Fe2OG dioxygenase domain-containing protein (Zea mays), 259 residues
Amino acid sequence: MEKMLHSAPAHGRLPECFIFPADKLPQAKATSATVSLPIVDLSLGRDEVRRAILEAGKEIGFFQVVNHGVSLEAMQDMETVCQEFFRLPAEDKAGLYSEDTGRATRIYSSTMFDTGAEKYWRDCLRLACSFPAVGDSAAAWPDKPRRLREVVERFTVQTRGLGMEILRLLCEGLGLRPDYLEGDISGGDVVLHVNHYPPCPDPNATLGLPPHCDRNLLTLLLPSMVPGLEVAYRGDWIRVEPVPGAFVVNFGCQLEVVH
């Protein structure tokens, strides 16, 4: 637990090990404009939605989805209970700490990932959920705060339903049968990464995560109150402006391979 940033005393200045050279900071190369990703409204006609998903996927690989069917209550409860988790005393979280990447449910800090001398400014709660045995997965999740298991289960069931619907729409748009991506390829665990970024004395000099591609099929990102998402686009980096109530959708590497 000593490596967890949020459990350490507040830093008056950014420790040297978190400071990245300017050429390793995407914001040094980012456009000054804040860009709204393509917005896909699932309440529109199915043909229109299919076209919008295909266009967004071909152009940038990211879009934001609205009228998605995940309840506002589930989204708000998820954010609230995760904030409550990170505010728990260290002794209530110590048993979950692990640097074992094979452990399905754990908390860890990005300080354990080095790129030479630099470390990343992020703590993370990782939760894995198997379908349809959601209840069995929940038994391994933290039992504090009291509502965490209930809230995470409801959120995960709803967001997986959204993800599967997006995949069905994508398959239809590609001329495939709607269930083409169902089964083994989408039947693994749903993995939730709850990213926590403690107050940073100099956020412009460090990174919470490295530039990366998601290795999975599809990622749904629920933006938080901490901004900073940037997307690589045509050799540049664009800062994403989240739409209230929307999920950011990212097509992962597995989807590119399948396509």
Summary: Residues 5-258 form a domain with the Jelly Rolls fold (CATH 2.60.120.330). The chain has one domain: 5-258.
